[in-house]
């Protein structure tokens, strides 16, 4: 059988050469195929390889009638709708290791550039000037570098920063002090990091909880004269707030490789400033990284076609295709429950996660795979590190989180049930089941019984059980022009509290969420993506 492999955004020659050695593929190689042309070709394509340019969304996936695998030639998945791919039975993979060193080095290059005004000094001398005093900079030795996020890239930055005689501190709520100390990083709170750092470098994924993580409040807490570096994802930094902080001389400068809108619009205020160093998303753009990523992608396709093995899969574990067919509905439920509880838990420290399975046939040999998927679902919204079934257990151990599993052959209230309990300074419980043997449902959150579909954007609210709250919520959401697809309610008559899980067609703005939090009787509002 011949498999069609389409490269949409180009791939290193070494990767293409390795793919050409496979006897069972037809290779379609494009440097930058236009979207409409791609949609026409996609119905006959089995494997799609993209970088950051091509948006693999639901609309595109619906054209992939034969599509089985999408591979991102890089670590980031911002341009791939993983949930939609899962619903379409398309496996999503990335190449998680090829870009680590390259992105870490670029972060440090940006740190040097902004500290010593290198781009502005270069432009000045090329224009015929000699402004030596104007571009007097700052020495790095002895300064404090604060790393927001301590995944693979954050740790790589820390290792190199030690050689520059920088003091390294870090914030990562899911990393233990012992694990950070192994990398010579002093773990601190976010407020302490902002207060102590001469340089703040961002290394977290862009998710609902990190959107505008570096905002006006964060800038207000930063040391006067500090610098900000962001080579992670656009949207983590509130660009309007950054401009204000620079105008007010709160910061000495900033260096950005990523932006909320890419390419950066010609009218953007960042382009008019001389105290910001800008690069066009170059974090992974080195010859070495592209070669490594190309080879990594080719190896993954080889394993898939030759051995039926999924390596570096994001939405399924690394199992054989035969096992995947049997486990898929349960894996989907485990992933969604793990991701959901990670985003609703208010625990600042997590010590233990207990997973209990009830009524699942032949659970014995497959329990480890299901639990790994729970871990993957839990960690993925929280880390910039790529999480899969290979590294999930080590990442949990690194963060001091203990995993406990148990199973019962029978289930009292449902055909099957999977329950997750997160224990730390706060306890959070969630349980789910399958309806019709395949559709995942959330049936319990803490003491609330509910029947909710964990899909897409979900608003999770807690409120006093009183009249008017639900109506006001609907009015606030409606004013933004967002459609409510489903609403699921649960009540605790003893506590006189209620919860709601509201499926909406698109994400709500921070301003709309804040309006919802101000509704009389509202206790909390969280926007979840599953």
Write up this protein:
The chain is of the alpha/beta class. It has four domains: 1-96 and 286-315, NAD(P)-binding Rossmann-like Domain (Rossmann fold, 3-Layer(aba) Sandwich); 100-278, Rossmann fold (3-Layer(aba) Sandwich), CATH 3.40.50.720; 317-446, D-3-phosphoglycerate dehydrogenase, domain 3 (60s Ribosomal Protein L30, Chain: A); 454-530, 2-Layer Sandwich (Alpha-Beta Plaits). It contains 17 helices and 22 strands. It has helices at residues 13-20, 35-41, 58-61, 82-87, 100-115, 118-126, 152-163, 177-182, 190-196, 216-221, 239-247, 287-307, 321-344, 363-379, 392-398, 469-479, 510-517, and strands at 3-7, 25-29, 47-50, 69-72, 91-94, 144-148, 167-171, 186-187, 199-202, 226-230, 251-256, 276-278, 350-358, 402-408, 417-424, 428-435, 439-445, 448-452, 457-464, 484-492, 497-504, 522-529. The strands form four sheets. The protein has a seven-stranded parallel β-sheet, with helices on both faces. The mean pLDDT is 90.
Q: What is the name of the CATH architecture of the largest domain?
A: 3-Layer(aba) Sandwich
Given as residue ranges, the uncertain stretches (5+ residues, pLDDT < 50) are none
How are the strands of the biggest sheet laid out side by side? 8-7-6-9-10-11-12
β content, as a range? 15-25%
* Count of spatially separate domains: 4
Tally of alpha and pi helices: 17
Please count the beta strands (DSSP E, at least 2 residues each).
22
| Helical amount | 25-40%
What would you report as the Rg, rounded to the nearest angstrom?
A: 24 Å
The first-to-last residue Cα distance is: 35 Å
Structural class: alpha/beta
What would CATH call the class of the largest domain? Answer: Alpha Beta
* Overall average residue pLDDT: 90
Biggest sheet details = 7 strands, parallel
Q: Which word captures the global form?
A: globular
CATH superfamily of the largest domain: NAD(P)-binding Rossmann-like Domain
Q: Might you state the CATH topology name of the largest domain? A: Rossmann fold
């Amino acid at each position: 059988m011949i498999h069609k492999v389409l490269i949409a955004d180009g791939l290193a020659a070494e990767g293409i050469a390795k793919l050409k050695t496979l006897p069972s593929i037809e290779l379609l190689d494009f440097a930058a195929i236009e979207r409409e042309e791609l949609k026409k070709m996609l119905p006959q394509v089995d494997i799609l390889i993209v970088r950051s340019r091509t948006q693999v969304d639901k609309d595109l996936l619906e054209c992939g009638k034969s599509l089985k695998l999408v591979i991102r030639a890089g670590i980031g998945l911002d341009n791939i709708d993983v949930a939609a791919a899962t619903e379409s039975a398309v496996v999503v993979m990335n190449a998680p290791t090829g870009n680590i060193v390259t992105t870490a080095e670029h972060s440090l290059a940006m740190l040097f550039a902004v500290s010593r005004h290198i781009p502005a000094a270069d432009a000045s001398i090329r224009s015929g000037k000699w402004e030596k005093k104007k571009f007097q900079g700052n020495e790095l030795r002895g300064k404090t570098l604060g790393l927001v996020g301590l995944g693979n890239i954050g740790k790589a930055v820390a290792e190199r920063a030690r050689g520059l005689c920088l003091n390294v501190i870090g914030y990562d709520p899911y990393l233990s002090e012992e694990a950070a100390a192994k990398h010579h990083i002093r773990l601190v709170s976010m407020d302490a990091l902002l207060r102590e750092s001469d340089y703040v470098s961002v290394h977290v994924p862009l998710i609902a909880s990190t959107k505008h993580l570096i905002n006006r409040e964060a800038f207000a807490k930063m040391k006067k004269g500090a610098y900000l570096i962001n080579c992670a994802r656009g949207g983590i930094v509130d660009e309007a707030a950054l401009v204000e902080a620079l105008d007010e001389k709160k910061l000495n400068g900033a260096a950005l490789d990523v932006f909320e809108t890419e390419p950066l619009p010609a009218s953007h205020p960042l382009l008019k400033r001389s105290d910001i160093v800008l690069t066009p998303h170059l974090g992974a753009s080195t010859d070495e990284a592209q070669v490594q990523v190309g080879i990594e992608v080719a190896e993954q396709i080889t394993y898939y076609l030759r051995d039926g093995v999924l390596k570096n899969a994001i939405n399924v574990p690394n199992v054989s295709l035969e096992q995947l067919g049997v486990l898929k509905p349960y894996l989907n439920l485990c992933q969604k429950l793990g991701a959901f509880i990670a985003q609703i838990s208010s625990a600042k420290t997590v010590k233990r996660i207990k997973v209990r399975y009830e009524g699942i046939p032949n659970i014995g040999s497959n329990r480890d795979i299901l639990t790994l998927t729970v871990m993957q679902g839990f960690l993925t919204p929280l880390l910039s590190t790529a999480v899969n079934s290979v590294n999930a257990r080590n990442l949990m151990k690194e963060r001091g989180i203990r995993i406990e599993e148990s199973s019962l052959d029978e289930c009292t209230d449902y055909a099957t049930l999977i329950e997750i309990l997160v224990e730390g300074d706060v306890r959070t419980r969630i349980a789910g089941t399958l309806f019709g043997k395949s559709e995942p449902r959330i049936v319990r959150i803490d003491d609330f019984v509910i029947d909710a579909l964990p899909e897409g954007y979900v608003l999770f609210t807690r409120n006093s059980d009183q009249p008017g709250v639900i109506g006001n919520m609907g009015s606030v959401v409606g004013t933004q022009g967002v459609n409510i697809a489903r609403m699921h309610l649960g009540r605790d008559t003893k506590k006189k509290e209620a919860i709601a899980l509201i499926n909406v067609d698109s994400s709500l703005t921070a301003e709309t969420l804040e309006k919802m939090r101000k509704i009389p009787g509202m206790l909390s509002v969280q926007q979840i993506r599953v």
